[in-house]
Amino acid sequence: MVGQRSCIEEKMIKKMDALGNCDELDVKAAVMNRVRAIHDQQKTMDGEMANLRDELESFGEPGDSVMQMQKKTIPLPSKFRKRLLSGVSAAILLGMIGFGALQLSGLGGLTEHSSQSTIDIIKPSDGSITLVNSGGRVVVQTVHTNNSKPVATASPAIEKYQTLLATYNEQVLARLNPGEMAAYYVIDTEFTNLVKGLGYGNQLQFAFNPPVYSKYQDFVNELKVAGDFWPELPSILDDGYEFERATFKAASPYGSIDTEYKEVLEQFQKKAKDDKTGQKLFMEKIAVNAIESAEVSYHKGDQRITLSLMQSAFRGYPTQVSILEGQTAEKWSMTGNGKEAVFIAASTEQGAQAWTSQNRLYWYDEASQTIRSLNDGLNNILTREQWQVIANSFIR
């Protein structure tokens, strides 16, 4: 049930893209030290100093595969896009220090933060919320989906298909290094019949071995190279949580109705027809040219939060965001920058038939013309107050 629920919400989502006390001043040295501290902290918050940590242990060598490895690489169409402080007197310097502290409070997350980056919350009685762009066009709207209950179990055919697909997918992943992607084709009568019988259009499958990054700058550089994904990712949250590690999931390069898909499928079918060894699995490494989602962990001491990130391009029509049974929706207005967002709290329903859901946050990024979303997975460990800090950290 959890898997089904997560899948439903994922589809809905895809429809859319440190400051201390001011001591009593003895003007000269104390003031200048304070100026330097603020300057250094500002540099850190601007992302000029990345949080460096030890690299994760390297991935183990893949095990032996039961299929033969194809060497040739299929070329894919590219879809890339690509203070100085000074003063005349101690009084002026002190005033500038006070201003700098106020500025950093909005970024660094101390006690002053709540008074500087508040969120106005509106909870419509009917739960209907819309977000608009600068031109007044609706880009996100909530839709109630509460007229059905989750199905307890999947059909035997679906379960068999998922088992076979997972088996072949693991065989492909065993031949991929972290960060590599492959297209593959299966010649298996039972698997093919299941694909056709269930009405699935994808005879061509894709596998991606997600890399793990422990350095912030390495990760954001890869996001830019692999698909210009989320260029403003914060390295530190407003309440002091710092970047710890991250990974991403590559998007399928094309769908079953695309010309490229058909061309690659025909190449695999020809290889399978010419094969005399009885091989069931054919694969080719391909380039990663888009990112579907990312997962980022932040930590403060031994405390950790993990967020899933998605984005989709605005295509001229509203992205519909589902509100399921037991969920509530709120419109959040950020007083600091005027941006608006939709926050959907996880379901509070209990029992075996209750939907398993996620806390979700949606907003529109005008600069990139994309709809952004965050969720905390199915564990729902983050409080509403923590989500407000996250909103202030991400929505700039």
How would you describe this protein?
The protein is 31% helix and 24% strand. The chain is of the alpha+beta class. The strands form three sheets. The protein has a nine-stranded antiparallel sheet. A hairpin with a 5-residue loop joins strand 2 (130-132) and strand 3. Helix 2 packs parallel to helix 3 (90-108). The chain is globular and about 70 Å long. Residues 1-35 and 37-116 have low confidence and may be disordered.
Short structural summary:
Helices cover 31% and strands 24% of the residues.
Arithmetic mean of pLDDT: 75
Distance between the amino and carboxyl termini: 36 Å
The share of residues in extended strands comes to 15-25%
Number of helices: 9
Task: Report on the biggest sheet.
Answer: 9 strands, antiparallel
Number of strands: 15
Question: Which percent range fits the helix content?
Answer: 25-40%
Question: What oligomeric arrangement do these chains adopt?
Answer: single chain
Structural class: alpha+beta
Low-confidence stretches: 1-35, 37-116
Helix and strand succession?
Answer: HHHHEEEHEHEEHEHEEEEEEEEH
Query: Which of globular, elongated, flat, extended, rod-shaped describes the shape?
Result: globular
Order of strands in the sheet with the most strands? Answer: 1-12-13-14-15-10-9-7-6
Alpha-carbon Rg, integer: 25 Å
Name a few traits of the molecule.
disordered N terminus, 3-stranded mixed beta sheet, 396 residues, 9-stranded antiparallel beta sheet, 9 helices, alpha+beta, single chain
